Amino acid sequence: MSKRLMLARLLNMFGVNFAVAKMKRNFLIVLNYHRIADHDHSTEFDNDVFEHSVDVFREQMVWLKQNFEILDEIHLVELAHSDNFELKRNAALVTFDDGYADNYTLAYPILKELGMSAIFYVPYSLIEDREVGWWDKISWLVYKTTKEKGNIRDIDLDFTSPHNRATSAKALHKYLKLNPYTDTKSIISELSEMLDVELPSVERQSKELMTWEQLKEVSDNGISVGSHSMSHRLLSQITEEEQSWEIKESKTLIESRLGKKVNTIAYPVGAVTSFNDTTKRLVKEAGYDVGFSFYPGSYKGKILDKFDIQRISTSSEFDLFKNEVVFPKIFF
Ligand SMILES: [Zn+2]
């Protein structure tokens, strides 16, 4: 058992997290999810973006609703603009990135049933072109190849066991996250040839993503839809002009697709190195109210930087989840 889990179990035994969750701390935390898995979970795409089963997600949402005030986008924006916020109860905001179909088929019914708001962040071009992200294409190729070994850009690839395939996919994901986007398309087509695997058809890719109709429906029912850029490129890796296009164009086009104003953006990948000061300036100039990153953090009485609002990802283990949400400073 990990030290984190041991500490979590101990705190649970004494009901510490429960007591603290109920305690008024003027505390705000933002949670981020990507994919939820159904009961017969199997995927031909990137397995690492599935955080939880649908049962675990429900368990988390039920607990969160019991112990926190669940914010909607408007309320969050209000807090972000206040110099010193006063909350009646500790607050949480739920967000989803990337626009996967399961956000609509699995997460949305649970949120709706519990009367919880959330924000879904979508990369405009992926939804519009019915095309999954590069990380999913890489995983598709690596999971399907009948080759045993390979090498690309000095990365050794091994496909001789499920574990080795997963390790190879991770190594490629890491490389592509850190390298300029110009290389991404060529790597994917080179890999497809080298591994002798065809890329998924548009029809196949389309099934993984929400449609505009589904996004319209959720946006009419308590879920806000925000921008996750146009193409999910790392904003820090591209020119100012390209960043500007990713940030402004996605806002305009999502707004015209849904007939609603887009007020917030979540930066692709969202690590400290995935965006920069230029990103934040352009986001402000484009008229967004706030921008979300994706590395651990929480807030007490004040959001320090409304264009870098930190979000946490949660563990599936319920004991850990409760502590991560209540004591993020200790558990991350
Ligand atoms: Zn993303």
Structural features:
15% strand, 332 residues, two-stranded parallel sheet, alpha/beta, binds zinc ion, TIM Barrel, 2 domains
Bound molecules: zinc ion
Please state roughly what percent of the residues sit in beta strands, choosing from under 5%, 5-15%, 15-25%, 25-35%, 35-45% or over 45%: 5-15%
CATH homologous superfamily placement of the largest domain: Glycoside hydrolase/deacetylase
CATH topology of the largest domain: TIM Barrel
Uncertain spans, ≥5 residues at pLDDT below 50? none
**In the CATH classification, which architecture of the largest domain applies?**
Alpha-Beta Barrel
In the CATH hierarchy, what is the class of the largest domain?
Answer: Alpha Beta
Distance between the termini: 17 Å
- The oligomerization state is single chain
Tally the helices: 15
The shape, in one word, is globular
Largest sheet descriptor: 6 strands, mixed
- The average pLDDT score comes to 95
Describe this structure in words.
The structure is a single chain. The protein is an alpha/beta fold. It has 2 domains: 3-131 and 209-331, TIM Barrel; 134-199. It contains 15 helices and 12 strands. It has helices spanning 3-13, 16-22, 54-67, 73-80, 101-114, 124-129, 134-144, 162-178, 182-194, 202-206, 212-219, 240-258, 277-285, 318-326, 328-331; strands at 27-33, 35-37, 50-53, 69-70, 91-97, 118-122, 149-152, 155-158, 223-227, 264-266, 290-292, 299-300. The strands form 4 sheets. Strands 1, 4, 5, 6, 9 and 12 form a 6-stranded mixed β-sheet that branches. The protein has a two-stranded parallel sheet with strand order 2-3. Helix 5 (101-114) links the parallel strand 5 (91-97) and strand 6. Helix 1 (3-13) crosses helix 14 (318-326), helix 7 runs parallel beside helix 9 (182-194) and helix 12 (240-258) runs parallel beside helix 13. The radius of gyration is 20 Å and the shape is globular. The chain starts with a helix and ends with a helix. It binds zinc ion.
